Amino acid sequence: MLTLVQIARFLHDLAFTTWIGSMIFMMLVLTPAVGAKGIPPQFLRLMGIERFKNWAWASIIILAVTGTYRLYGRFYMFDLFLMSRYGKLMMLKISLFLVMVILTAIVSLSYAKRIPAEAPQKPGEQPTPEFATMQRRFISFSATNLALGVTIIFIMSIIR
Ligand code: HEM
C-alpha cells in the first residue's frame, strides 16, 4: 500500500527531474544549436520557451507543495531545526529555490513571448542588436537558474 510520504517523494523527484533536466537540455543542446545569428523563428518556437515555462511553473508548484509536506513534521521545534546542520542546509536550499522562482518569473514575464515574436522572421536574416541583447540576457538568466538547481541537488546529496 502506497503511503502519502512515498507519493510526495515520487512527485518531488519527478518535478525536479523535469525542471532541471529540461534546463540542462536547453542549455547543453538547444541553445548551442541555435547559435548567435540568423535564427529562424520556427527554431525558437521549436525550442518551445513558452511551453517550457508552463512545465517550469507546474514543477515549482509540485516541489513547493510536496517539499513542504515532507518537511512538515520537522517544524514543531523550529529553533532546534534551525540549529541543526540539516536545518541550515534545508534553509539554504529553500532560499536558493526562492531565487530560482524569481528568475523564472522574470524569464516568464519578459522573455517567453518576446523572444519568439522578435526573432528574425526569415531564415538567414540578421537579428537586431536589441534582440541579440535580449537573447544574451535570457541565456544568462537560464544559466544562473541551472547553476542554482544543480547546487540544490548537490546540497540534497550531502544533507544527511
Ligand atoms: C519549497 C521548496 C522545497 C522544499 C520545502 C523541499 C523539501 C525537501 C525535503 C523535506 C526533502 C527530503 C529530505 C530528506 O531526505 O530529509 C527533499 C528532498 C529533495 N529535494 Fe526538495 N524541496 C524543495 C524544492 C526542491 C527543488 C527546487 C529541488 C531541485 C532543484 C529539490 C531537490 C530535492 C532533491 C534532489 C531531494 C533528494 C531526493 C529525495 O529525497 O526526494 N527540492 N526536499
UniProtKB/TrEMBL annotation:
Transmembrane segments: 14-34, 55-72, 92-112, 138-159
Provenance organism: Desulforamulus ferrireducens
Gene Ontology cellular-component terms listed: plasma membrane
Keyword line: Cell membrane, Membrane, Transmembrane, Transmembrane helix
GO biological process entries: copper ion transport
Main location: membrane
Protein name, entry field: Copper resistance protein D domain-containing protein
Domain Copper resistance protein D: 50-157
Membrane topology term: Multi-pass membrane protein
Compartments where located: Cell membrane
